[in-house]
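Team,

Forwarding the record for the chain on the shared tracking sheet. I've put the sequence and predicted structure together so nobody has to dig through attachments.
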Amino acid sequence: MAQALRPNTAGSLFATDGKSHPLQDTLMVVTFVLGLLSFITSFFHSLHLLSSWAGLVALATGVYGQWISVTTRQRFGLVLGLGAAGVGFLIGMAHGGLFGGVIS
């Protein structure tokens, strides 16, 4: 009864291998938080600098996180963060960009 010793995580969206992955988990959290920040601040025209820079950093960390991710849970969080970061970054760029108003 080998199946009694291991939990069945094959059908779970958040399947994990049971090991610790601190770097991948940190990149997932940073990408998700910065992506959410970028998405929320993109609704305010005057916060375009914060929105575009947070989105750019989240995109960079998210792409690297996808490259080294190990579990489905990490990839799921990274895709959510990348989506929010992409939308926030592009709206921030449309409102003035990375240096809009600072460098003319």
